[in-house]
Design goal:
Length: about 120
C-alpha cells in the first residue's frame, strides 16, 4: 500500500513498510557527512594534538596509550562527529544533498527518454 504525504510544498511517497525513501536517503547522507567530518577533520585534529610536544608527566596514559593511540583517536573522532553538529558538517550535507538531487533528476529524465 502506497500513501502520499504532502509537506512544505513537496510530496513524499511512503512505502508499505512505512519508510519514506527520501527521508531515509537524507538520514543516510547526514550520517555519512557526520562520519566524514568526524574521521577527516576531528581525526586529523586529534592526531596532530597527540603528536605535539606538549606532553606532560601527569595525565599521560603510559605505554598503553602510546600503543593504542591511533585506535583511541579514531573512536573519539567518530563519537565527536556523531555528537556535534558543526557548520562544516552542514556544508558537506548540503553539498551531498544537492548532488543527490541532480543525480535523481538525471535518472528520472533518462527513464522518461529525455535529455538531462
Amino acid at each position: 500500500m502506497m500513501m502520499r504525504i504532502a509537506q512544505a510544498g513537496s510530496t513524499h511517497v511512503v512505502g508499505a513498510e512505512g519508510l519514506d525513501p527520501v527521508r531515509r536517503d537524507l538520514q543516510r547522507l547526514r550520517k555519512a557527512s557526520a562520519a566524514a567530518v568526524g574521521s577527516v577533520f576531528f581525526g586529523t585534529l586529534l592526531r596532530t594534538m597527540r603528536n605535539s610536544r606538549l606532553k606532560g608527566t601527569f595525565g599521560h596514559g603510559g605505554r598503553g596509550e602510546d600503543v593504542f593511540a591511533a585506535q583511541l583517536d579514531q573512536l573519539l573522532a567518530e563519537r565527536i562527529g556523531r555528537a556535534t553538529n558543526t557548520g562544516l558538517q552542514e556544508v558537506l550535507f548540503d553539498r551531498l544533498k544537492r548532488q543527490q538531487e541532480v543525480i535523481s533528476r538525471a535518472r528520472a529524465a533518462r527513464e522518461q527518454g529525455e535529455k538531462p
